[in-house]
Amino acid sequence: AQKITQTQPGMFVQEKEAVTLDCTYDTSDQSYGLFWYKQPSSGEMIFLIYQGSYDEQNATEGRYSLNFQKARKSANLVISASQLGDSAMYFCAMREGRISGTYKYIFGTGTRLKVLA
Amino acid sequence: KAGVTQTPRYLIKTRGQQVTLSCSPISGHRSVSWYQQTPGQGLQFLFEYFSETQRNKGNFPGRFSGRQFSNSRSEMNVSTLELGDSALYLCASSTLGQGETDTQYFGPGTRLTVL
Fold it and tell me: What is the pLDDT confidence band of residue B40, given thresholds at 50, 70 and 90?
């Protein structure tokens, strides 16, 4: 079973609009972390935002916010005021195994976002 | 702080050869992980090193190996290259296990082409 599911292979958004990229996860760990990364065509994975499983407030970093719904096991990324430079591949990832010491990071298959002028 | 660096950035090899990739983590980070990224399989975890010890390993054949040095720099080796090993190899470092935030920061990657 997929541990990280990103159901949107591709998304379009108009410049200056907001967009939500979906991510659902599956884990039996009580302590885990959720991450979003951006990968432009250059290939480098750029860290965007982090949410810990015990964090009660949704994480925000500038124009990025993470809509964390623990009971639904979802961690959607919201990008506000989209810019042309936001066009890239976006990956949702989960870190589990902190307590057991196995420290596994699992990535979703990604969502390709295209911002339209 | 300088980011994660990887060398070389691009490599072209032929089948049967071996290759060594290098990764220098962010200063102070003792955890280094390696990933293989291909269009068909996505991002797959290879292994993670912490304080010179392999702490975690993905499902890759023994042709893929790695090591970490006392300065936390890490190398990854692939022996007897196959066409399917063509991929972007990403290295990431973090402070995971050092009692701080465990965000992984990635390097620019090494793009390996096997002919």
Answer: confident
